[in-house]
Amino acid sequence: MPLLEIRDLRKRYGAVEALKGLSLDVERGEFFGLLGPNGAGKSTTINILLGLILPDSGSIRVFDQDFAIQQVAIRRRMNVAAAFTSLTGVLTVRENLKVYGRIYGVRNLERKIDELLERFEITELAQRKLQYLSSGQHTRVTLCKGLINDPALLLLDECTLGLDPDIAEKTRRTLQEFQREQQTTILFTSHNMHEVEELCGRIAFLSKGEILRIDTAARIKSLIPHHVLEVRFGPGIDLSPFRHLDGTPQAELGGDSTLRFVLDDPERQLDSLLRRLTRAGGHIADIQITRPTLEDVFIKVARGEI
Ligand SMILES: Nc1ncnc2c1ncn2[C@@H]1O[C@H](COP(=O)(O)OP(=O)(O)OP(=O)(O)O)[C@@H](O)[C@H]1O
Ligand SMILES: [Mg+2]
Q1: Does the CA dihedral 291-297-298-300 come out positive or negative?
Q2: Cα of 24 to ligand 2 centre, how many Å?
Q3: Residue 271: which CATH number?
């Protein structure tokens, strides 16, 4: 049975239908991505799961318990780290984490805090007040807060916002370690496609309060089937004869002795195209294939083109 089961969740704010009957299953131990344009309903979903807002209708089961009835017990085994989590500015990092640790009744709290600070490489910030932290440091304290109670279900809403590339990479690794070691189930939102692709096994694409598709990143990318093939020829060759060879897709002329082909079935077309080009006398100096990225799909979904 899924660890998290959301059925037909609806939420309206006046004229805005933030969620239009969202249904979703997340299995135990999954690193699950919630992707979608601004205003798609990701934070609304997460805030409902946190008990911060009430849905208009629909049901949620977590740990095979009814969220509407067992919310207090369920929430003890959950936690959240969100970019906009407000920790207390006048308290130090350690004091903030102590407050949350006590709320969750964490045993050996000092040791737990030390361990988390070390994992996120912010031990030296323990005595610093939150208001003096840089945004990337604040983000890492937020993640420590999210993991303070070893949650079985962790909600991460844009939790990596503002991290520099080095720290972002380390943070992703630390989250993966936690997830593997403790079988933490993670519901993750981010606008960083690279990160979503690296971390999430499955992704739900959300748009205007509805799920358009749930699948792996690889299968979601296959929504855009075509690859772009750029072929660079030796210098000084007239490329025009190669642009319209029989049985090959038409090419556009690029700069630097390059032709650009769009292949809608690359597996079938690539081999024969390259053969035809060489047979027709083209000396190929270099080729480059550009595959669609998750970002390409995201942009098309956001613009309603898929
Ligand atoms: N308290 C509120 N009152 C009115 N409208 C709201 C409220 N909270 C959210 N909304 C609206 O509900 C819709 C969904 O918002 P939500 O914050 O869930 O989007 P999101 O997917 O998290 O977007 P983002 O990527 O920008 O964080 C938006 O149109 C938003 O303006
Ligand atoms: Mg949001």
Answers
A1: positive
A2: 18
A3: 3.30.70
- What is the total count of domains within the chain? 2
213 and 89, same domain (yes or no) = yes
Same-domain check for residues 172 and 282: no
pLDDT digits (tens, 9 = 90+) for 183-236: 999 999 999 999 999 999 999 999 999 998 999 999 998 888 889 999 999 888
Give the atom of ligand 1 at the shortest distance from the alpha carbon of 14. Answer: 4
**Which ligand is nearest to the Cα of residue 82, counting in written order?**
2
pLDDT at 84 over 80: no
d(C-alpha 290, C-alpha 300), whole Å: 17
Q: With the C-alpha atoms ordered 9, 179, 141, 106, is the resulting torsion angle positive or negative?
A: positive
User: What element of type H or E holds 119?
Assistant: helix 109-119
Range of 53-62, 251-260, 293-302 with top mean pLDDT: 53-62
Ligand 2 centroid to Cα of residue 230, in Å, is 38
Atom of ligand 1 nearest to the CA of 209: 14
Q: Of 218, 238, 253, which closes a domain?
A: 218
- Render pLDDT for 105-128 as a digit per residue (tens, 0 to 9): 999 999 999 999 999 999 999 999
Q: Which domain holds residue 288?
A: 227-302
User: In this structure, what CATH number is given to the domain that contains residue 159?
Assistant: 3.40.50.300
